[in-house]
Amino acid sequence: MKELLAIVMAAILVNNYVLSQFLGICPFLGVSKKLDQAAGMSVAVIFVMLLATAVTFPIQFFVLDPNGLGYLQTIVFILVIAALVQLVEIILKKYIPALHASLGVYLPLITTNCAVLGVCISNIDNYLVTDFGPGFVQAMFNSLGSGLGFLLAMVLFSGVRSRVDKCKCPECFKGMPITLISAAIVSVSFMGFAGLVENLLG
After folding, report:
1. Are 6 and 137 in contact (CB under 8 A)?
2. Confidence of residue 1 (pLDDT cuts 50, 70, 90)
């Protein structure tokens, strides 16, 4: 249990896919203007990350590796993620149409969100062992932590952008320049979490 907690905490704070590894920047910059959109997108990404790991990990373990098809990993994973995103889109459109409308084009873009693919490949690289059970559990907890880290980054940056939009800044910094500068400062702040998990749980 302690190991699983360390995996989740590391994925949220230390190895945050957006602020530390710079994956998933497109939705991070595009959907973080409003808190409700940022939270909605993050929940959808968490759901897709968990489902993608639950599907791709067994495919790699039981299908690709035993048959020497590991070179097809990226193609297969992208197809799986695309299918799962379509499933999420159908569910949101039917049951939460307001959120579906507010996310707009960024919902289908989860298919090309490199954070989702990055989590799946990272899980294979770090947790695929000869014994399927423990490795699969660790991979699922890493996906959960990565999704929660994405949520934390989106919500934090949504708050930052709401404050920045109300401030007066030089004309040349308005729009995307000040947004990128703000994102860089938030990213630098997460460097302070380096070593936190080892100190708390070590």
Report:
1. no
2. confident
The conformation of residue 31, written as its DSSP 8-state character, comes to S
Helices (H) and strands (E) in the chain, counts: 9, 0
Q: Which two tokens stand for residue 104?
A: 């707009």
Radius of gyration of the chain (CA): 18
**156 vs 47: CA distance, rounded Å:** 20
One-letter amino acid at 176 equals M
Q: pLDDT tens digits, residue range 100-131?
A: 887 777 777 787 788 899 999 999 998 887 77
Q: What is the pTM of this model?
A: 0.87
CB 145 within 8 A of CB 12: yes
Report the alpha-carbon distance of residue 9 to residue 48 in Å, rounded.
Answer: 20
pLDDT band at 199 (very low <50, low <70, confident <90, very high): low
Structure tokens at 67: 């048959």
